[in-house]
Amino acid sequence: MVDPVIEIEVVYAAVDRQILRSVSVGEGTTVRAALLASGIGGECPELDLAGCPLGIFGKVIADPEVRVVQAGDRIEVYRPLLADPKEVRRLRAARAAEAKARNQ
């Protein structure tokens, strides 16, 4: 018997481009297996498909090797941040305080 097929999307935003793929996978496919089936690794060799963090509609998946995709899911591939957001805010606030002190 053939497993029913479902449609999902896989997205990845690199620094210089964005990739969105529609993928057909069998019911019961895990998030990580669906990512591998998408073929996105061929376009983005810099990605560690076996270990990169993944999410579905903005929510990080703790165990993508176990979580099964549902029809219509959008798997998001996350890349490391280039800068810590807290540190960036702290530096911006320090520069603003310094500028304010100079203008008084």
UniProtKB/TrEMBL annotation:
**InterPro entries given for it?**
RnfH (IPR005346)
State the Pfam families in the record. Answer: Ub-RnfH (PF03658)
Q: Family assignment?
A: Belongs to the UPF0125 (RnfH) family.
Write down what this protein is called. UPF0125 protein KVG96_20795
